[in-house]
Task: inverse folding
């Protein structure tokens, strides 16, 4: 591919990145009627979300790189901390969901009874998780299932149903379910964390806080992790939620709860996300003053944030402090450092860090390459970007390419790397290679951006390859129709 074509491709592809108890039965009846008149698509592409409650790997979550958008993403395959379902269970759950999604018949009871479904607690929970984006259907299924032999109420199935109903903002019904859970002694703190989160997603901050406070009404004693959950929920909202976040933090300390490394990690991430880095640094010093040892992920968050604002000297200081604390640098920390150098356009230093990563056997990985490539394109450093692309798309028989090296080490290229490469190949009219990498992208379960697929389609049609376009379109449609566990917001 020539430099002129590569320059042209860059210009075209770069983008900055308590209610009456009968309510439940009434709603169930309404649900069956609604299925007939509404299009509840089980196959819509969900946003990535975290498990409900406070996940065990929270420190990893709070340190997500600012370059996360340039790395490959995987949908969560499990919820509520449970192990993935057994293959046979998954198969049966998929069959039930397919049955429900393929018919608009309001008589759900008859539809399901004729399907020879052997109801079990695990099947009900799995189906409800898969119906996360279809609250009305989820309610109808639950109402049918609870009348079947083998059904047993569980916290897991209740929580899955609450999640689905929360996405269609059926909060009054949710609180009715909470009362049922209490009566059955199935209520958990995770349930309240889930409800708070759904309120926050609906931009109902005060209701989210009230849901947290109601835990005590239902007999739960508040602890530090509970405050952490609430703070974590509020930090994902708009900037004005920082004030409420500070209020919750003060309330937490005023009531004698000691913030821990998770608390500080969440707060520091929130302030870095809002670009209030001085406040984030203040919290770091407060953390140290209280003899609360920072985690590697706290350092990573600060390096990311400061680096993105070209406060390189401070980012480097926190990198050195992390090593002085006895933490051996991990790939996310190294990637944060690479990003900090790139933001200040010290690309040579970024490549020096990559050499250090190799010597330390901690990378580089796909995110590392994505970071550098992104910054080179953003800065229009086309000659250097072209050299990177040359390595990735070199002729057969040459030295192993970066792309091949990554795959050989089990590193999956990210969506943006796939997209940039395929777009460049399209503009270079190297359509066989473009289709090859497009297929690799689909095989990896990465859904192609609409703009990129449009470019590929246009290039193929210009060459008269309509059959290939139809074949690729069918593959994308099949991917979209694959039921997904979990889901995103409405």
Result:
């Amino acid at each position: 591919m020539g430099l002129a074509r590569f320059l042209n491709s860059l210009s075209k592809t770069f983008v900055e990145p308590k209610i009456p108890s009968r309510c439940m039965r009434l709603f169930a009846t309404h649900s069956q009627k609604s299925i007939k008149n509404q299009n509840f698509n089980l196959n819509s592409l969900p946003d990535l979300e975290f498990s409900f409650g406070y996940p065990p790997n929270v420190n990893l979550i709070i340190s997500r790189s600012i370059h996360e958008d340039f790395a490959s993403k995987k949908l969560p395959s499990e919820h509520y901390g449970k192990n993935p379902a057994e293959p046979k269970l998954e198969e049966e759950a998929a069959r039930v969901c397919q049955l429900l999604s393929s018919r608009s018949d309001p008589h759900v009871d008859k539809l399901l009874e004729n399907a020879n479904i052997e109801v079990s607690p695990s099947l009900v929970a799995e189906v409800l998780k898969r119906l996360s984006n279809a609250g009305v259907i989820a309610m109808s299924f639950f109402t049918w299932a609870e009348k079947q032999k083998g059904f047993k109420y569980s916290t897991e199935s209740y929580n899955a149903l609450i999640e689905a109903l929360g996405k269609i903002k059926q909060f009054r019904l949710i609180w009715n379910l909470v009362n049922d859970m209490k009566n059955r002694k199935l209520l958990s703190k995770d349930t309240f964390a889930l409800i708070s989160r759904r309120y926050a997603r609906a931009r109902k901050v005060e209701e989210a806080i009230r849901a947290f406070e109601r835990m005590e009404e239902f007999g739960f004693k508040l602890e530090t992790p509970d405050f952490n959950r609430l703070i974590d929920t509020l930090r994902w909202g708009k900037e004005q939620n920082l004030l409420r976040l500070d209020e919750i933090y003060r309330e937490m300390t005023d009531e004698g709860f000691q913030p821990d490394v998770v608390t500080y990690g969440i707060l520091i991430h929130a302030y870095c996300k809002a670009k209030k880095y001085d406040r984030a640094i203040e919290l770091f010093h407060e953390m140290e003053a209280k003899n609360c040892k920072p985690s590697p992920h706290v350092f990573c968050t600060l390096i990311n944030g400061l680096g993105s604002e070209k406060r390189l000297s401070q980012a480097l200081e926190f990198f050195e402090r992390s090593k002085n604390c006895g933490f051996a640098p991990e790939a996310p920390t190294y990637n944060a450092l690479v990003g900090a150098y790139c933001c200040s356009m010290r690309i040579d230093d970024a490549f020096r860090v990559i050499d250090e990563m190799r010597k330390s056997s901690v990378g580089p990985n796909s995110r590392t390459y994505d970071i550098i490539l992104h910054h080179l394109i953003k800065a229009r450093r086309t000659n250097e970007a072209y050299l990177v692309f040359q390595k990735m798309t070199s002729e057969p028989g040459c030295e192993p390419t970066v792309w091949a090296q990554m795959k050989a080490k089990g590193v999956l290229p990210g969506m943006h790397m796939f997209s940039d490469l395929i777009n460049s190949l399209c503009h270079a009219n190297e359509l066989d290679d473009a289709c090859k990498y497009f297929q690799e992208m689909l095989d990896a379960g990465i859904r192609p951006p609409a703009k990129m697929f449009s470019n590929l389609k246009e290039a193929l049609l210009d060459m008269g390859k309509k059959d290939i376009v139809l074949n690729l379109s069918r593959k994308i449609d099949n991917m979209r129709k694959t039921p997904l566990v979990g889901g995103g917001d409405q």
